[in-house]
Design goal:
Oligomer: single chain
Radius of gyration: 18 Å
Distance between the termini: 59 Å
Order of helices and strands: HHHH
Shape: elongated
Strand content: under 5%
Helix content: over 70%
Number of domains: 1
């Protein structure tokens, strides 16, 4: 049960659920407690973080140089 209690909020936070909602679901008055205790890295967190940064740089590159076209 203890592992499930850690998995549930971690999975919700990883999926993008609002911290205030997760905190309420867990019965916490302070969302900071929820983050400190239950915001574990999920297995694909690093890969998603890399993709997010790659996307930002790709968008920035296209805005600076215009759309990429095949020649």
């Amino acid at each position: 049960m203890h592992a499930l209690r850690h998995f549930y909020p971690s999975a919700l936070l990883d999926a993008g659920e609002n911290i205030k909602a997760v905190s309420e679901y867990m019965g916490h008055a302070d969302p900071g407690l929820t983050l400190r205790v239950y915001a574990h890295l999920m297995p694909d967190s690093r890969q998603r973080a890399r993709r997010a940064i790659d996307t930002v740089f790709q968008r920035g590159s296209q805005e600076d140089h215009g759309p990429q076209t095949a020649q």
